[in-house]
Amino acid sequence: MEVGSHSFSAASKLFDKATRERSWLLYAWCRRCDDIADNQDKGGPLGNQGTPKEAEDRIQAIRVLTRRALDGQPTADFAFDALGMVASECGLTYEMANDVIGGFAMDATGFAPKNENDMLRYSYHVAGAVGIMMAKIMGVHDDDGETLDRANDLGLAFQIANISRDVVEDAAAGRVYIPATWLEEAGLTPGEHANPENRFILAGVMPRMIALMQKHEDAARLGAKRLPFRSRWAVLAAANIYGAIGRKVLTRGQKAWDTRTRVNDAEKMWHVATAFFQAVWNRPSGPQEPIIWSRHDFRPVAGW
């Protein structure tokens, strides 16, 4: 986790010992699946994706190993065995895991969102579904649908921040996650949108992206209100850090992609300290608009 995600690593240390270690086990599975799907190492540069058949074979390998792990069978891969361990302790199901694998399958088939709903549906699979699994690790019951919905919101917010930050890196790998309709409205062609000469116009799309991130971040804070203190503190710290990444992309404008947008260690400490007082106060205001959506609006995608 310290290699693959500095932000998650910082926030995870705030959990109580059992939740912290379970979150690391879940992260190990997510990171391993991502590395297998993208033929990379700990989230590093994308490897050669090979043929569509080879990409599909990697997804099938993930599904088989995940099924074995959740059936309590050895997999000869630590990360999958880790998932089996935490699943047996916290009630994680194959349906939950399969929703996450669906995101890898979407990438393997060259997915690119046509509209906002497509982007949110993809974000559900790669991050919102992980948020729901994390909520289970934090002790949220299956019948507490409201808190599970808000855990999904947190994942959506994180992924929108990632998409905003990684536009140029994704484009270099032949991937586009900003909705095609948004780019077309701005006069940009998907695939050429991240070229240096287009970044001033691209920066004009970011207020819409970050406003969407903020909406789901604010909704997620309402769910954090119901968590135990240590879990609430960790979730709010992660929300602060990832929200700061998105807002930095916005304020940097067309220079947002000259270098990778980061939250430095001093800023992380500030966000962690701020989250502590937010967790103590525990009176989030929520998003400006009424919440009329749930996790079921984003899952599943037929065919993935």
Number of helices: 13
Rg of Cα set: 18 Å
Helix content: 55-70%
Beta percentage is: under 5%
Number of strands: 0
How does the helix and strand content classify structurally? mainly alpha
Tell me the series of helices and strands, N- to C-terminal.
HHHHHHHHHHHHH
Could you give the distance between the termini? 27 Å
Low-confidence spans: pLDDT under 50, at least 5 residues? none
Largest sheet: none
In one word, what is the shape?
Answer: globular
Mean pLDDT: 93
What features would you describe in this structure?
With 304 residues, this protein is mostly helical. It is built from 13 helices and no strands. It has helices at residues 6-12, 17-38, 52-70, 78-90, 94-108, 116-137, 145-165, 167-172, 180-185, 199-203, 206-224, 229-252, 265-281. The longest helix is centred in the C-terminal third of the chain and has 24 residues, at 229-252. The radius of gyration is 18 Å and the shape is globular. The chain starts with 5 loop residues before the first helix and ends in a 23-residue tail after the last helix. The mean pLDDT is 93.
